[in-house]
Specification:
Shape: rod-shaped
Protein name: Membrane fusion protein, multidrug efflux system
InterPro entries: MdtA-like_BSH (IPR058625), MFP (IPR050739)
Distance between the termini: 33 Å
Organism: Bradyrhizobium canariense
Structural class: alpha+beta
Keywords: Membrane, Transmembrane, Transmembrane helix
Largest sheet: 6 strands, antiparallel, barrel
Number of helices: 9
Strand order of the largest sheet: 2-9-12-11-10-13
Radius of gyration: 58 Å
Number of strands: 13
GO biological process, one term: transmembrane transport
Strand content: 15-25%
Length: about 525
Amino acid sequence: MPPEMSEHRSESSSVDAPAIAKADAAVDRDDKLPPPDSASKAVPPPSQRFTRRRMLLIGVLGAVGIAAAVYGIPWIRFVLSTASTDDAFVNGHVTFVASRVHGQISRVLVDDNNRVHKGDLLVELDKEPFRDAVAVKKAAVDTAQADLEAARAAVRGTEAQAWSHRWQLQEAVENVENQTALLHARVAALKKAKATLVLAQQEFDRTSQLVVSETASRELYDQRQAALSIARAGVVQALADANQIRVSLGLQTQPEDSADLDQVPPDLDQTFSSILQAQAELIQAAAELGVVHSYNQSPKQMLEEFEKLGPVDRTFDRLAAEAPTVKQAEAKLEATKRDLAVAELDLRYCDVVAEIDGVVTRRNVNPGNDVQVGQSLMAIRSLSEIWVDANFKETQLRDLRIGQAVDLYVDMYGDKQVFGGRISGFTMGTGSTLALLPPQNATGNYIKIVQRLPVRIELEGYDPDKKPLFIGTSVVPYVYLNKPLSGPNAGTFLQGFEQQSPAAGSAASPPGVDK
């Protein structure tokens, strides 16, 4: 109850009670006066005694009326300018402290009703198993790092082999190309030798006729015969050289008069044995590097593919980072690092600390207890994040707004301690409608009951060190309806709805409801 109300009631009681007592005493004395004797003065008539008593009673009633007017009017004005309810309670945040790891408690450093600050150590779990797990994960990381370095070294070796096979393939292709060009040159030499043989044969035949007619000398005949023999030998040698090249290319030998003597298959570079071997080795090495992987590529296409990789030194570094084996080793290393991070985090979770400032309550663990992940250890009630939830009647909400000043009287401190506050928000629904199973009034039997809606009141100037408030304690709020509003969203709630629907006030009332 506000102090002014209690003072008004106490003062009016202190003024009215003595006056009434004196009036009654005077009346009793008048009634109990002994009868006058003959020597005394004459007794006044009864009409005079009645008039005096009536005047005294009127005076007392007038004093009572004046006192009621002086002290009652402010009380009535106070009641009309405020909204109050006794259905209000202190509320605040309660943080439940739970274990994030499974383990055995080694120490509990706080007890119920101890005040703690954010970051204070509350409970400590046995850390030895978690230290061992961290050591194992670190060893796994070191092993994975070594495997990665080994994979990179192996890839560098494979790269060297790939480039070696690449040069071998290029050499084989160039060898086939050179041999093919040499075959054409040998066939051209064979054709030249055959032309020389034809010319030598003609010269020999003519010289033979001249010798018969004794026109030419015997010496010239011998020269033409020697030239013919040399030309025949040149043809045989040129044919042998051409067939030798064909054999080196994996082709069949051809006779002197064959038209296919200088013919080379167009896919010779894909069927030549040395090229096939170099190509297979290159494909195997390149597949390990994830570069060239198509068996349908021609040798020249494979060489062009390798040429696109760029310089050898930079190619080695890039391939070493992109090789499948290296990628697998890197993925394994990342997985072990994540496992190590989780193990180190679990080790830190062995120290359970306070997340907020407050007071410990509902401690339910002791040293030696085995706790599971998520098991509640205790709760911390906040002292600073405190507010009041006041359940006002729905008929009172029409006058309430966000930002209105509130005086709060807490039962535990009495009427002389006032806490200041302001309305900060309204719950858009009653408690019953927000329940898991809201009530359904569809049976036909309905009794209208005035509902209550929670209104949140934020405290102003609250110091938990001087006058702490406990969650759940009873409060009587007095909301001042005529004082200036302040704070964010001041003046909203019902007023905002009225502005959005200005015609709502002039709308007709529902059937059966009186305005």
